[in-house]
Amino acid sequence: MTDQPQRHRRWVLASRPHGEPTAENFRLEESEVPTPGPGQVLLRTVYLSLDPYMRGRMSDAPPYSPTVAIGAVMVGGTVSRVVSSNHADYQPGDWVLGYSGWQNYELSDGSGLVKLGDNPQHPSWSLGVLGMPGFTAYMGLLDIGQPKAGETLVVAAATGPVGATVGQIGKIKGCRTVGIAGGAEKCRYAVETLGFDLCLDHRADDFCRTAGPGLPAGY
To answer: Locate the Oxidoreductase N-terminal domain: which residues (predicted)?
Structure first.
């Protein structure tokens, strides 16, 4: 973990998108790899999570969380390794969960970092089923939805990280699970891999007609 590449790369928000973001809304910047000061660690990004909430953070409309400033690094959850450290709690090689965003290196004072153990077998899972998407699925379904065995559970965006987890928890709870996804390939994945009982393709021309037989009365 002592060798450092020549350059540090980061993607910043260059302009605010109107509609779907394009490449012109971002700018790649390069600089020297930073050196940690007293009490700091240098993190190298290994995994970056790309999530739907990022679109809202690009906008200057009133957000539910702070807007990314023009010229600032795009936000994002990350799993990183410590390259070098002047912090007593972190050693080179440590795996950590953080929020470094769209860049391959970050200096951190340790705030908000979560250690993932000495040698995690699946470190990327901390950005998925063991991270924010998994927590959202778990709390949303079990704490708010409170499903009961025998009920039909309908899950939109069924092949995304939250929806996929909701569907599998629903099966554990004894529910009949119906997923909604875009495209035949995603629907096959929902049924054959994720274990949904049925998946409806919202892009299909006959979606409205075929949805009825797959759902109980009242949907």
So the answer is: 9-116
